[in-house]
Amino acid sequence: MEFIDLKSQQRRIREQIDRRIAAVLDHGQYILGPEVTELESRLSEFLGCRHTIAVASGTDSLLIALMALGIGPGDEVVTVPYTWISTAEVVALLGAKPVFVDIEPDTWNLDPTRLTAAITDRTKAILPVGIYGQTADMTAINRIAAEAGNLPVIEDAAQSFGATHHGRRSGALSLVGSTSFFPSKPLGGYGEGGALFTDDDDLAERMRWIRVHGQQRKHHHPVVGINGRLDTLQAAILLAKLDLFEEEIALRQAVAEGYARRLAEAPLTLPSVAEGNTSVYAQYTVLSDERDALQAKLAAADIPSVAYYAAPLHLQPVFAGLGHAPGDFPVTERIAATGLSLPMSAYVTPQDQDRIAAAILA
Length: 362
Fold this sequence. Notes:
362 residues, Aspartate Aminotransferase, domain 2, Aspartate Aminotransferase, domain 1
């Protein structure tokens, strides 16, 4: 059994993938070729935003957004300690300080009731994460950001891309949205990739400059940039996958519903989707007070599982200088100690779900 089944999807679209890759090989525009432009256009249409900037990775997308906002030494960016390290890593790379806020006990996303207390006169951005497939409470976060002086909000939608919040797509819920096309993501390529989304014309232009070494036009570099371009082959693959994306979101949701029915009697906490949200279930994560024993039992039954973010960011040695200690973010620490992700993709069969549920209930 695959933890994330990419092979079943590939069997459905292999012909389209091969055709699109062949087109790239024929025209030879391997960097920022026409498929990149087509992908950007289709993603803008999907989200309903003015600008999409395709970039080399999800990490680069966050870094470029922060650079475009001018964030640097002495600044603070508010985010969560329950996420992949890149969310806070990019803040530190620019010499700024990540300021952590604990998460909600049900959605496991940034708790807006704790946000105001974390904002200081050095806060230059808020960076919420859509963990495991649903967005944070972006309505509340945007309101608090506006009340604090129109602080920019960067939505890390690497796991929630395709989900909705009160009818609007994740990635288009704030000043800047960011996503990743890492292969395991709901919309993933066959390598690295990412994208940025915004309705702000000036910010979009600046992010495009930064993507290509800060270049506004040939031989003219008004800002410091990076090599953050998405290669054309990845764009070609993503275009083939995008044709299936909405169908696969529905299939993922059906798999999640199947898990919920089968595990209703299990001594677990199942994922909760907030009112007004939908989830794309980037992962199907449950909480168990006997997480490690459960994972070992699943492994013995040849069922893969992953304990994501088992060491939260505030306890990582790289952030020791922030001065945090165990107990500082108790909700994060509880979820980190008990969370276990089960096999999830659009292609987890009912038979697989039966087998997984039987192993857990046993």
